[in-house]
Design a protein that fits this description.
CATH class of the largest domain: Mainly Alpha
Shape: globular
Largest sheet: 5 strands, antiparallel
Number of domains: 2
Strand order of the largest sheet: 1-2-3-5-4
Distance between the termini: 62 Å
CATH topology of the largest domain: Transferase(Phosphotransferase), domain 1
């Protein structure tokens, strides 16, 4: 009997580790939502599973360090196991300059025409000296500057100023669209501060 070990439980999926033919694999299984009509639930889970696997495959083929989907079923993705620590657990243990590589990771993703939509330290794994991007559940095809800027904003809100400075340098190096994205990010931040002031005045 092949044993499954649950590693984590998310809002819509469980993550398991399983050894198959001596190789450790990660299995992401999308759970049934009891509050949805069965047919709708099944169609939604199938669609999201296939879409996530497609985003991962496209990212990997464009040089992004990320898991490779090996087997795709209706509700599950079997992928290689990236051993290491999530970035949010080692923020205070690594050099600020290492965030340059995290920025390059996001640039490669955007260059491939993909936005992650949850680009936070929790979804970046440090294995040895390499950074890996995981959890493509919200990823979409997009070259929209504002959607790209959201990925930067999520990371900016999660790290300190010096870490983000290196991250931004890594993202912007040899990046033909970085100016547009950074301008959009600045606009979003100004818009956010204006909204905060408006709320405080009420």
């Amino acid at each position: 009997m092949i044993k499954l070990l649950k590693l984590s439980e998310g809002s819509e999926a469980d993550i398991y580790i399983q050894k198959i033919l001596g190789v450790e694999m990660i299995i992401k299984y999308r759970r049934k939502k009891p509050y949805l009509i069965t047919d709708i639930d099944e169609d939604l889970r199938k669609h999201r599973t296939k879409k996530e696997a497609k985003m991962m495959s496209l990212a990997h083929s464009n040089g992004v360090n990320c898991p490779i989907p090996m087997v795709i079923s209706n509700y599950s993705i079997y992928m290689n196991y990236i051993k290491g620590s999530s970035l949010n657990k080692v923020l205070d243990k690594i050099k600020d300059s290492e965030f340059f590589e995290v920025g390059k990771l996001l640039f490669l993703l955007h260059k491939a025409g993909i936005v992650h939509n949850d680009f936070t330290p929790a979804n970046v794994i440090l294995e040895g000296e390499q950074f890996w991007l995981i959890d493509f559940g919200l990823a979409e095809l997009s070259s929209n500057a504002e959607e790209r800027a959201i990925d930067l904003l999520l990371m900016k809100r999660s790290v300190n100023k010096k870490q983000y400075l290196y991250f931004a340098k890594g993202y912007s190096e040899s990046n033909p669209f970085s100016e547009e994205v950074n301008n959009r990010l600045a606009l979003m931040e100004r818009r956010g501060r204006y909204q905060d002031r408006s709320l405080n005045m009420k």
